[in-house]
Amino acid sequence: MISLAAMTPVRRFNSGLAAAFSAALLAACSSAIEGGIAEPPPTGGPTLAITAAGVGGLDASTTYSEASIEAVMPGFDAEPVTMATEQSTVSALALFRNGLQVLQVLPGEDGRIGAVHGVSASLRGPGGSRIGMSLEEARLPAGSCREGTGNWLGMPICSAPGAPNVTYVFAIPGYADPNGLPDDATLATATLQRIIWTPAGTAS
């Protein structure tokens, strides 16, 4: 299973402080590759809400380019990365705030943005869910979840209540059974790793 946070930055920050933050982030990613759950990263700024309408200034009308995305997301720096989705590895733009990666923005149709993946504890999903919460803490019913496939085999992928175009991706340490999700008690302990917004009517 490929780490949800896997990425290859194309450009690097010049500041020593940003380099230290990046090293810490990569170390967290390595622990996820080996089956552990990385601790949520420091918030690095105010909470950013993910709703059915969009993520901060990002919505279905946003042009997919570094300049356009930075224009509607003041305080963030856009950097090209390679990241893993459920079924493939793709090029995307990661958004950093204070040297910490917060979002990954995928290209969509007609030159616009596609899915936006939230990967920081500084995010708040519909209903107040935060990265690092258990499925029980997020108050999600087991019936709202399906089992991930491909790179996300065995990972519960759940619908956000009241926001059909927002999904939550959880992880269960050591669990990778292609025959379905575990019992409800085990499922309740799954940890939220990623919040995904998609323009209405598109796939994540």
Overview of the structural elements:
The radius of gyration is 16 Å and the shape is globular. The protein has helices at residues 16-33, 66-72, 184-187, and strands at 48-49, 77-84, 89-97, 100-107, 113-118, 123-124, 145-147, 156-160, 163-171, 191-197. The longest helix is centred in the N-terminal third of the chain and has 18 residues, at 16-33. 14% of the residues lie in helices and 29% in strands. The protein has an 8-stranded antiparallel β-sheet with strand order 2-3-4-5-10-9-8-7. It is built from 3 helices and 10 strands; from the N terminus they run H-E-H-E-E-E-E-E-E-E-E-H-E.
Strand content: 25-35%
Structural class by helix and strand composition:
alpha+beta
DSSP summary: helix tally: 3
Which strands sit side by side, in order, in the main sheet?
A: 2-3-4-5-10-9-8-7
Q: Report mean pLDDT, rounded to a whole number.
A: 81
Oligomer: single chain
* First-residue to last-residue Cα separation: 18 Å
Biggest β-sheet description: 8 strands, antiparallel
Task: State the share of residues found in helices, binned by percent.
Answer: 10-25%
* Alpha-carbon Rg, integer: 16 Å
Order of helices and strands: HEHEEEEEEEEHE
Q: What coarse outline follows from CA principal-axis ratios?
A: globular
The low-pLDDT segments are 1-44
| Strand elements, count | 10
Summed up, what is this model?
The protein is of the alpha+beta class and 204 residues long. It contains 3 helices and 10 strands.
